[in-house]
Amino acid sequence: MRKFIIILASGLSLILCNPASADKSDNYLREVLPNGLTVIIKHNPDSRVFAVDILGKNRAAWEKADQVGISDFVNRMLVKGTAHKTAEEVQAALDDIGAKLTTNDSPYIPYDDRYTWPAFTFLKFETIDEFARDGLKILYEIVSEPSFPEVEVEKTKNQVMGILGMQSGSTSQTCSDLYYSQMFENHPLSKSVLGDRRTVAGLTRAVLAYHHKIFYNPPNLIMTVVANENPKQVMKWVKKQFKNLPPYPVGLKDSTIPVAAKKMGVIETMQPMDKEQVYICLGCIVPGLASENSTALSLAIEILSSRLQLNLREKQGLAYSVGAGVRYLGDFGWFTASIGTGYKNFEIARAGILAEIEKLKSEPLEQTELDKARNSLWGSMLMRNMSCINQAYNMAYYEFVGVGCDYDDNYRDRLDRVTISDVQTAARNFLETHNYVLAYVGKVAETQTKENVK
């Protein structure tokens, strides 16, 4: 199995992101520093934004059972004070150079969790090129020397508790957590990103400081930079600061393929909620992004998502939200179809999702529908790479899963090579209707729980 960690034999490694792409030699530079930190620089002459993403690998695998959510909490604390600055002084230093630092998605913006995975953390930093070197100095201080002041720890606990309380009333969030816990049972990915009230309440300054040392350990990090300066010059600036990030003598974590990848029939789980609606998540483990089938599979799921929206929501009026998507790591991913509907429509909605999957496998697919899906995925890729910071984030993710930081550069070619036969073969092979995980929450779950008791 492909490993998600980089192992150095000795010394320093300097290579291009994709050695086979000679014409890109001036655009990408990849180097592993002596302390183990992987640094990738991309040249973007069309923007004056200096963007940095720092990815922490395998966040959930590092978290003990009584400390679930600690990686997210540590990220929230990074701007709450350093060895040399208070929280106010950190913010003032960022403001002085017009910098923006994002360590967590906002829970108050719908669908803003596309960057948040239990597989890794992110830290996104932006300023203008004029302040690149000053920005890197501030960023290094924030990453390497957080002080975790007691008063800020308590403030952050209250903040996270508030978010947990808000999410506990959401059928979609509750169903997603239930789905992950079953899909990845006894696997790190089953853990909640935020943790729960018990684990958050138990976090102390000492525990946070130790977790920071082992998680923000240079070999556990990928740092990607997008800038309009020459990559070699940017690399010098990065090394001046981040070569000093001290490694910590601890073994690294890896992700394994979950048990749910095996064909185990239908695994069903439910949770009652005092709601008039029901939310359903249904899905299975699929091959990872490194698989030769991933592009065809992505197109199959895009077509399925469009059909679910058209047939279940627009034509039948079943759903207030419905769709399908896929998330990939290196060796595996997971497909999920979800729907929010009235509790009386539970059986119809579940059967409708399964029926649409079967139709995709068996009925002829029109070329126009494939072309529409191809253009949709292509447009989404262009949109998510419009900003330098998103380019940096995506580069780090692709490096983490082992497909190369320039994966998006050849995306259109990969899409164009997929045929109708490829799409339907991927659907038949990987979109399960007899071996899948089903999670649902809401009034229907409460009704069925009472019936089971009888």
Output the CATH class name of the largest domain: Alpha Beta
In angstroms, what separates the terminal alpha carbons?
47 Å
Q: Secondary-structure element sequence?
A: EEEEHHEEHHHHHEHEEHEEHHHHHEH
Output mean pLDDT: 89
Q: Radius of gyration, Cα only, in angstroms?
A: 23 Å
The low-confidence runs, each spanning 5 or more residues with pLDDT under 50, are 1-23, 450-454
CATH topology of the largest domain: the name is Cytochrome Bc1 Complex, Chain A, domain 1
Mind summarizing the main beta sheet?
Answer: 7 strands, mixed
Polypeptide structure, described:
The chain folds into two domains: 13-242, 2-Layer Sandwich (Cytochrome Bc1 Complex, Chain A, domain 1), CATH 3.30.830; 259-453, Metalloenzyme, LuxS/M16 peptidase-like (Cytochrome Bc1 Complex, Chain A, domain 1). The model is unreliable at 1-23 and 450-454 (pLDDT under 50). The protein is 42% helix and 19% strand. It has helices at residues 70-77, 87-96, 132-144, 150-168, 171-183, 197-201, 205-215, 231-242, 294-315, 346-362, 367-384, 388-401, 411-417, 420-430, 443-453, and strands at residues 13-15, 28-32, 38-43, 49-57, 100-102, 120-128, 221-227, 266-272, 277-287, 319-328, 332-342, 436-442. The chain is an alpha+beta fold and 454 residues long. It has 15 helices and twelve strands. The radius of gyration is 23 Å and the shape is globular. The protein starts with 12 loop residues before the first strand and ends with a helix. The strands form two sheets. A seven-stranded mixed beta sheet has the order 1-2-3-7-4-6-5, with helices on both faces. Helix 9 (294-315) packs across helix 11 (367-384).
